[in-house]
Design brief:
2 domains; magnesium; 10% strand; 10 helices; 6 strands; 239 residues; DNA polymerase, domain 1; six-stranded parallel sheet; alpha/beta; Rossmann fold
Length: 239
């Protein structure tokens, strides 16, 4: 009834873009932080690409990854070399932008995701959240989703436990470990290519891609290892 193989007993959900609409907030915060940096660096070194940050940049280099990894990945794609102090400053600027928007506008959960969470809980499927964001607890609470979640692995866990970020499977493997199941008995739900890759690399029992982008995203998710791609979680429920 949940659109999952029979052996799945645990659902490991990414947060931003899967359960809540905060992926767009993250994307906008990254754009403002990177564009401010790029504008200040207008007289950059030879070979540096200082064009404004785009949605494609977000999807290819930042989406789903830990904050510092996202900064390094984007800058490398533009041929920009900086020290760790600059990387951390950009990451902090992004987080400040994100938190300001969160405080001003709040958080909304996708209605289809809430329907799926309710159906999952009613069916006895156990639920955890695995997110690269260090603001996972605040987002869950603001969206009214905390009561659904048995365990949370977030950006703080990744740092504290020295886990590799997505697309490495470490955070999802930790989520399965906390829930007491083998990866084969857990499903991964992701809206980021890096997260789909993490689910495939961890050999999880089922990897669900949630395409909130359109275009070639569904095709890219399938190529990255998604077993199924839907545009909303409630598409997995019986009609």
């Amino acid at each position: 009834m949940l659109g999952l193989p029979a052996q799945i007993t645990v659902a490991l959900f990414d947060l931003d873009g899967v359960l809540t609409s905060t992926a767009t907030v993250h994307s906008d915060a990254w754009r403002r932080a990177f564009d401010a940096f790029l504008a200040e660096r207008s007289a950059g070194a030879a070979g540096e690409d200082l064009r404004p940050f785009t949605e494609r940049d977000y999807l290819d280099h930042v989406d789903g990854r830990p904050r510092l990894d996202g900064v390094r990945g984007f800058l490398a794609s533009r041929g920009i070399a900086v020290d760790d102090t600059v990387v951390e400053a950009i990451a902090e600027a992004k987080n400040a932008e994100f938190l300001a928007t969160l405080a001003r506008d709040g958080v909304s959960a996708y209605p289809g995701s809430v329907r799926y969470l309710n159906a999952a809980r009613a069916a006895g499927l156990r639920i955890a959240v695995v997110t690269s964001s260090k603001n996972g607890a605040a987002v869950l609470e603001a969206a009214g989703l905390t009561s659904f979640v048995e365990h949370r692995v977030d950006g703080n866990t990744i740092v504290d436990e020295h886990l590799r970020g997505k697309p490495a499977p470490d955070s999802y493997l930790r989520g399965a470990e906390l829930m007491g199941v083998a990866p084969a008995n857990a499903a991964v739900f992701e809206d980021a290519i890096s997260g789909v890759q993490a689910g495939a690399a961890g050999r999880f029992g089922y990897v669900v891609g949630i395409d909130r982008v359109g275009g070639s995203q569904a095709e890219n998710m399938t190529a990255a290892g998604a077993d199924i791609v839907v545009t909303d979680l409630d598409a997995l429920l019986p009609r």
